Amino acid sequence: MNSTLNRQMLGVAETLSHPSEAEVRMNLRPAAALPSTDELEELLRRVRSAFFPSFFSEGGSNPEMQHYQIGVDVNQIGYILRRQVARGFAFCGSDECTEAMVSRIVEAFLGDMPEIKRVLLTDIEAIALRDPATANHSEIVFAYPVVQVMLHHRVAHKLWQLGVPIIPRIIAEMAHSRTGIDIHPAATIGEYFAIDHGTGIVIGETTIIGNHVMLYQGVTLGAKSFKLDADGRPQNVPRHPVLEDGVTVYSNASILGRVTIGHDSVIGGNVWITTDVPPNTRVLQGKPRSVDTFEAGLGI
Amino acid sequence: MNSTLNRQMLGVAETLSHPSEAEVRMNLRPAAALPSTDELEELLRRVRSAFFPSFFSEGGSNPEMQHYQIGVDVNQIGYILRRQVARGFAFCGSDECTEAMVSRIVEAFLGDMPEIKRVLLTDIEAIALRDPATANHSEIVFAYPVVQVMLHHRVAHKLWQLGVPIIPRIIAEMAHSRTGIDIHPAATIGEYFAIDHGTGIVIGETTIIGNHVMLYQGVTLGAKSFKLDADGRPQNVPRHPVLEDGVTVYSNASILGRVTIGHDSVIGGNVWITTDVPPNTRVLQGKPRSVDTFEAGLGI
Amino acid sequence: MNSTLNRQMLGVAETLSHPSEAEVRMNLRPAAALPSTDELEELLRRVRSAFFPSFFSEGGSNPEMQHYQIGVDVNQIGYILRRQVARGFAFCGSDECTEAMVSRIVEAFLGDMPEIKRVLLTDIEAIALRDPATANHSEIVFAYPVVQVMLHHRVAHKLWQLGVPIIPRIIAEMAHSRTGIDIHPAATIGEYFAIDHGTGIVIGETTIIGNHVMLYQGVTLGAKSFKLDADGRPQNVPRHPVLEDGVTVYSNASILGRVTIGHDSVIGGNVWITTDVPPNTRVLQGKPRSVDTFEAGLGI
After folding, report:
1. Would A115 be classed as within a structural domain?
2. Among A53, A251, A290, whose Cβ lies nearest the Cβ of B283?
3. Between chain A's N and C termini, which has fewer beta carbons within 10 Å?
4. How far is CA C202 from CA B62, B287, C150, C199, C252, in A?
5. Residue A202 and residue C197: Cβ atoms within 8 Å?
């Protein structure tokens, strides 16, 4: 390159090296080491391997080798969690985090793994019950995005319950990027939770979902407007829907605000709901306008 | 780590090593070797390289090198298919699969490759005709997600027609994860099929799409409720829409059930359709409520 | 493999080696070297590292090391851009591209990097202001897909303004694949632009967005039908919406055509809008049909 360009590059680098006013205000040069997304990817791979050894473990289909591999996986899960949980606290500027606290969190998570697996298996059963296109349960585990997103959510939710900062959000975002399904780690989701296809689903922070609920692609369980606190920041209050047991929501429906959808109700596709819906109710979009014959053309 | 934690980890590993009742019921420890997603990724890369040598082949832009590279690609496609098709049958517990059967399937697929390519080129022409933002056909091949998803679909559909289990679904899911477009491998799709943007599109198993059809992002061609069979399992019957030639469906529309959208009809965005639509018809959402002036605020 | 299969593979390879008539017509065997998506991935990684050194740079959290790393990043950005911009012109068959032109483009881009960063920081502030689920600005930078997509858009838009062919589109598509958000590089987007969740958002080529605008997931800013030019090709004219300052659009709304949404208006979810909306207006979907109690069942 010519020397003009070289000089220019030096100048740009110099400018970018100094934190701007906005960067300082937003505190965007944290001094602490960051959580490692690579290690968190590895963590989730290990959990998946320990839960579904015939599918994702290096132990292959030999039961004895699976046994050994699960031991290795659980061990690695413990080590990775220790490091990353500590980093999560440091990144969020928390000085309260002691080594004993990290140990308690890791122990609690490990102790809960069999229960996380049990609930995840109910999600797989729910899909098998709902989707006529499924050949068998193995196909669901191996090829359905819902398994990935619920594995991430049930792990992230446990860590969120244990008070771990930022890590749960990163784990949720990994699944969001791959599946297009965005579930806030704080959302409470019951057993036998089924998602079909799923791209575009959003489940907000304070959502509460019962058992045997099914969501199709593009469904939003979101918030309406919210009050600001004294500092002009939006308040973190319950602001997302409650879906009782047995609710089904069809594609692209948006349900907003702290409303309750009563048990066994069915929400049709593409509706916009901001009020309660009683149990056993079916809500459908208003009739479309079917417009007369018209000249065939490219569009609308 | 301390020895308490070590003992705990051993216990958790032990628990996870024993298949739970639910796992046994769902048969989630299959003894057979699994299809390899890495090899299937390689398969699709090779097909893409053989179809579009100037874009994705290691042969670069030199026609003679492209010639050699296509030979290598086709050879690899044959080898990978043999291995993976056999694994697909084994994974699904089929003992009927003989080596002769696998050979017949691989031969049939290879023989159909030029036809698959021919149809895929019609999809690229369809996009060029519809999208004013396109500079040239090369840009579509190189940068449009529709090419990836239709390459995967037309390959997966052929393998599905040849009776290969699970592999077509995995190939479809690879494209779904990258493009947000979820097309069941069994769906029948005509020539000159155009998708623009595409995120969130779902095309169900028994869908039938004619020629010169265009779908925008977020469109669902899905199923309504379905009957259960004697075992309480959903029946796999025709339950998705038929779109005749020349139909256009705008963003986020949901069309559900075995309904027919007549030729050259246009379905507006965000509508919910569960009945037939005659040919040459335009269907639009009912009028929105335009609500008065209101205090400016964050939300709704 | 048997020799029949070998002979067949040779025949298929031979057939695929000869460009079909359609391929020739579409000019799908361009002779020029292609832009490299790997290098463009590296380019965006370097920009991200230079803008957010505490998060994504190899310099870690040490300010002096960050300083050095930013110098290396900017230098690499310059080198990669030179190569890829030249390839972009060659790929598009432009002979007008001289080395001096490439240098001018690279210089202009580098000179604009601090301004790109400044505007990107306003997007991060906008999210912090709108999302009650956010703990701090660092969490947004580290875990929110909007930062990735707007980093890609603001870089791609600059290169598009400088007249670089195809590269901006590839950069946009990288972000689309990972986030499900599809923003055409030509779209004009003001400051403090907030996207929440975002999967399924489409922003068309001639869209104009003011300041302090917020879009939720699944929103389409698209085109209606368009006129064809003398060659039967769709005309590239203004055909996407204008959103004035302070507009909020809720999930899955579709706004189509060159319509204007007046300042501070709120568009409710799942509506379909093809006409102007005055300022300070709230537009909601027509009332849904709330259908009576019905027998509980799987679907609709």
Report:
1. yes
2. A290
3. N
4. 37, 23, 13, 9, 10
5. yes
